[in-house]
Amino acid sequence: MSIPVWAQVVYLGCAVAFILALKGLSGPRTARTGNLIGAAAAVVACALPFFYLDDMDNVVLILVAIAVGTAGGAYGARTVQMTQMPQMVALFNGVGGGAAALVALLELDEIAGTGLDLGWFVLAATAFTVFVGSVSFAGSVVTFAKLQELMTSRPVVFPGLAVVFAAALLGGLVLSGLLVAEPAIWAGIVLALVGLAFGLLLVLPVGGADVPIVISLLNAFTGLTVAAGGYVLSNTLLLVAGTLVGASGTFLTLLMARAMGRSVANILFGALKGGSTLGSGEASDRPVKSAGPTDAAIMLGYADRVIIVPGYGLAVAQAQHSLRELVDVLGERDIKVDYAIHPVAGRMPGHMNVLLAEAQVPYEQLKEMDEINGDFKDADVVLVVGANDVVNPAAKTTPGAPIYGMPILNADDAKQIIFMKRSMRPGFAGIENELLFDEKTTLLFGDAKDTMSKLVNAVKAL
Length: 462
Known about the structure:
By secondary structure, the chain is of the alpha/beta class. The chain has helices spanning about 5-25, 30-45, 50, 60-80, 85-115, 120-145, 160-180, 185-205, 210-230, 235-260, 265-270, 295-300, 310-315, 320-330, 350-360, 370, 395, 450-460, and strands at about 305-310, 335-340, 365-370, 380-385, 415-420, 440-445.
């Protein structure tokens, strides 16, 4: 059935709204508005078919699916903690890829049943959607399990993995060719199963430190499958939306890989060559210099310039509000304070910015790595709160380390470093941080939220 002109105009408006939403999401001040614009356009696009289709099959099932999806989304938005946002993104992304694959299978069943000759390109787009959508679904489930600690975050490898991986890829290509040559639902189902296996094999060898980058890559995969599905369904809105997601996901993947100082190929296939993105993960028993909140407060209270490096530990402890209070107290003493934000601080780009925005931290105090790295040498004190790998000098000094080559924040250039940690266990990369043993470094042990509150009180008492 052809889409009425008025409905096509509405779809065009929704596509423009998606573009405006993506533009809004590019900055913290406009992100909320952009998100609302995108959500509103998605609601309009989902509701529109009810107004121009005369006869809708399975309308009850459609309404039930919408109700279940709405309830699940509302529940997730209200209950999922900020620290769990990356795995929620992974899960939602996987659902999108799986849905695109299922829709393509339904279309393939209709094509095979009617015997219509739609041309090789439509069939190729269908095969692409089935295979890559299945890859995205299976891979996203694994990334979710790794981040949620439902399985080990270490690379999972086994003898012959490279051979099985290559066989799955070759099998996917062969089945895609068969599907294009002779459309049959059995070929589509087998192709989907091979895609699921390939998705598992693609993500299992990736270590925990690189999982966020793989989430972004799989997000791009899902976008591309939605775009291909839009071509199959002759739906321009899906084509535009999928292309936006695919392009933005690809750029984000490349930017994150660059921030880690690695190539995407190394991240995905490094373990196949015997490498690993994780170290031993064992706590060090080397001696360190530690102090209590009062000593740390004296160091901060009599400084002229302080730089704060927040990390995932801050997010886990939900200490952002106490940290903001500390910065306010230091500001009252005319101490200049900035936050140094690494591109992959937390678990995903922007994760730390959103966390600090919750505590009403002024945007002007959030400094990106390239902007603030030259200022560390002028800082009297650097306060590292829950970060580890992003300030680890091994990235510059230890060839062969999992993070070697990753651009880091130059906290080691400061005159004094206060390092807040719960224990001597290493960061997500699983390797020892030499900054902890630097003569300029003082460790402040304890839960970040509790210790930060004590530190605030100690500074106030000076």
